[in-house]
Amino acid sequence: MKEDGVMKKTKKIMPLLLLLLILVIPLSACVNKGGTNTASVNEKAVKNVIIMISDGCGANHILATDYFSNGQAGSQVYEAFPARYYVSTYSAGKIETDDDARYTYDPATIWSSFDELKASATAMASGTKTYNGAIGLDPNQKELRNIAADFEEHGKSTGVITSVELSHATPAGFVTHHPDRRAYLEIANQMIRESATDVIMGAGNPRYNDDGEQRSSIGDDDYAFVGGRETWEALGNGSLGNDADGDGDIDQWHLIQTKAEFTALQTGTVPNRVIGVPEVYSSLQYNRSGDVNADPFVVPLLETVPSLAVMTRGALNVLDNDPDGFFLLIEGGAIDWAASNNQSGRMIEEETDFNQAAAAVSDWVDANSSWSETLVIVTSDHETGYLTGTPGVYDEVINNGQSIMPTMAWNSDSHTNQLVPIFAKGPGVDLFEKYAVGSDPVRGAYLDNTDIPKVIRELLGVK
Ligand SMILES: [Zn+2]
């Protein structure tokens, strides 16, 4: 009897509960909208965006690394992402002397020609194609808006990390503006002193050489990648910063250099603004001495330098301090260098380092975020080396099994006009299909590199 009584009471209460829910849900939604966040509804669709760029990497570079690492194709986490397309990467014409470059992608001729093309990260960072060598400027030298600025405007944190010098073209292209990508000193100062970037990590440490050995003396030029002696010393004594989050207070940089400091940054409570410059000069591992044509990992890696994966986990741990979300650019910067020099072993080493960073990103989303709020894009700025399986023939590199070098042929020592792969997972992946209107006889649907910031701006609700 008592049980019946309870049942009856519950039956009476249920419709009331439902009515309450119907009333309360829209109310709470209104409260959220009416809070401090006044941006468009679209903004809620994406909290974090992580772009990973493997500099110089084409489809065959990924395939060769898959074969060496695992003995099979498709073995990287991003190769199973739901959006998988190709991207055209040609640059805009401007420099009169640059007459070797063709400023288009023509699927009808690319498969029968090995012409070399050049490209720029600025197109991906701003949505506008420019001339080779420009950073964040259009062909008329007008400043382009970087997508990093769009994230800043939405109250989000931003970071750029790379396995080469921190002021190199790709990280610089997302946060600075300069007519000459080789003006490292000025670019580094823009990044460190003027930009609102919250995390900067990369090589370029003036105190160390390419083998991670301490220099006996440091010349003025050795400070260029970190913005000169004065900037470096100010970073070292913790006295450098600007207002990164727009609250009117100075946000000081927190400099880290040792492998132990990078390792520690991966977990626990960390500062909100970090510049990480590992104890090595021009690259994490690529420029270390030893046989440059040896198979991957035959020449031991420098043990005093963090991997790109460790840097990635540290950067994510800093950026996720911001409850509004963040933008992070992660560059594997030396795949391009290895490919330019046709060094198959070092190319696979560098792409392996990049792949491990991609796995770290995927693990971070699973553990600390979700694929409904974090968009991850893995792509390249251009192909380098015209890598094939057979010299002079466009075909795939050939699998010889795990830990055995695949059969590979280099057909160029420069950037090429090949389409590069793009993989994406997270909110807005369907937008890639919308922009992939190009059709290539071999690769299928492709978008242009300027479409990448369009996708992101659409997600952010930026016009
Ligand atoms: Zn590049």
Briefly summarize what is shown.
The protein is of the alpha/beta class.
Description:
This protein has 463 residues and is of the alpha/beta class. The protein has a domain at 49-204 and 325-460: Alkaline Phosphatase, subunit A. Helices cover 33% and strands 16% of the residues. It has 14 helices and 17 strands. The strands form four sheets. The chain has an eleven-stranded mixed sheet with strand order 7-8-4-3-9-1-10-15-2-17-16, sandwiched between helices. Helix 9 links the parallel strand 7 and strand 8. The longest helix is centred in the first third of the chain and has 32 residues, at 2-33. The chain is globular, with a radius of gyration of 24 Å. It starts with a helix and ends with a helix. Zinc ion is lined by residues 55-56, 336, 381-382.
The rounded distance between the terminal residues' Cα atoms is: 65 Å
Q: What structural class is derived from the secondary structure elements? A: alpha/beta
CATH superfamily of the domain at 49-204 and 325-460: Alkaline Phosphatase, subunit A
pLDDT below 50 for ≥5 consecutive residues: which ranges? 1-44, 93-102, 111-119
Give the number of helices.
14
* CATH fold label of the domain at 49-204 and 325-460: Alkaline Phosphatase, subunit A
CATH first level of the domain at 49-204 and 325-460:
Alpha Beta
Would you count the extended β strands for me? 17
Radius of gyration: 24 Å
Ligand names: zinc ion
**What's the quaternary structure here?**
single chain
Q: Which strand order spans the largest sheet, edge to edge or round the barrel?
A: 7-8-4-3-9-1-10-15-2-17-16
Whole-number mean pLDDT? 87
Q: Architecture of the domain at 49-204 and 325-460, CATH level 2?
A: 3-Layer(aba) Sandwich
- Largest sheet entry: 11 strands, mixed
Helical proportion, percent range: 25-40%
Q: Label the overall shape.
A: globular
Strand content: 15-25%
